[in-house]
Amino acid sequence: MIFVPTLLVGPSGVGKGTVLASLCALYPEVWLSVSVTTRQPRPGEVHGQHYYFLTDAEFDELIANGGLLEWATYSTARYGTPRAELEAQVAQGRAVIVELEMQGARLVRERLDPVRAVFLAPPCWNELERRLRRRGTESEASIQRRLETAREEMEYSAECDHVVVNNEVASAVEELVNLIGLSSLRAQTDT
Ligand code: 5GP
Q: Is residue 47 assigned to a domain?
């Protein structure tokens, strides 16, 4: 079975991380791209697991060496997708998922073919704001910046191949599993 790489896009706070953690617990055969970023780690975030946390100079060097498939500035930091490992995993036929914001998704869609873009949407705007605040890791200024960007990002859903509403994590995971074709993989393994 050949998997089309999946981009998971959606506004900050919508629950992309939670949905992906739950999906990977169910399907450890999925390969989740670990991005590089210049932002500071949040409490509990682990270098090499949640992100590779880089200095500005290290990030610049990666760009100069062609090491990133895409990169974008989001809020006050830069984020990018390391190229080599992702290409190797795709070539091996692994089910690959990349979580990223919309500028990066646009670039990857120009550079990688085939690729599938899935937009994770909040049930409603108020719920998004509530989730972003509940996380409790951002300053008020950062929350305001993220909400502003989120308004633009909501419009990006129209450009994506699929929209999954994250009403409840388990059902969003199930939808994503079906879109990626993971359920058929499990069915093959079971027989
Ligand atoms: P956060 O700071 O909340 O972890 O991430 C902020 C935004 O950056 C989120 O929308 C997240 O999906 C996005 N992001 C994470 N990794 C990448 C990446 O490699 N490239 C791009 N363009 N965006 C990313």
A: yes
